[in-house]
Amino acid sequence: MDRAQPAAPSTPSPDAEDFVRFCYRRRRVGWPELYDEMCHVATRGAFRGMGHAELAELGIGFSLFDTRQLADLVTRVVAEEQAERARLRAGIRLVRPAESAPEPTAVPVSRVPAPPAAPAEEPSATPPLVLAVSAGA
Q1: Quick one: which of 71, 64, 55 has its CA closest to 13?
Q2: For 48, left (φ over 0), alpha (ψ -120 to 50), or beta?
Q3: Residue 73: helix, strand or coil by DSSP?
Q4: Based on the number of CB atoms within 10 Å of its own CB, is 59 exposed (0-12), middle (13-18) or buried (19 or more)?
Q5: Across the strands, what pairs with 83?
Q6: Where do the H-state alpha helices sit in 27-105?
Q7: 32-74: per-residue pLDDT in tens?
Q8: 18: CB partners within 8 A, 6+ apart
Q9: Cα–Cα distance between 41 and 27 in angstroms, integer?
Q10: Is the pTM for the entire model greater than 0.85?
Q11: Mapping DSSP to helix (H, G, I), strand (E, B) and coil, where does residue 91 land?
């Protein structure tokens, strides 16, 4: 059988790996869901303006004949990405483990002094009028 697209190189280029990383970072899913994302990205030219033809030159083929090679590349790149994320998470834990986190300190609340006492007046027969006013008024 003769293919319409050029044969993909046996070793994918660094740009091909970058394409898979780009798609994986957009949607952190595995094969075959990532294949759908890669097709969408290629159709829209979302990766450096490259479409299907340009990606085929890099070794990214979307035909049935290229599926096994593409799946192998995706599996390898996704495993690298997951290992890197796990390494970063472990590094973050080493920098500040939860058990050594500083205790929250109590912040003293400042007390508002009471208004000065009004001069003693004669008790009036009318009680004071209290009005509710909204905070923004």
Answers
A1: 55
A2: left
A3: helix
A4: buried
A5: none
A6: 33-44, 52-58, 67-95
A7: 899 999 999 999 999 999 999 999 999 899 999 999 999 999 9
A8: 47
A9: 11
A10: no
A11: helix
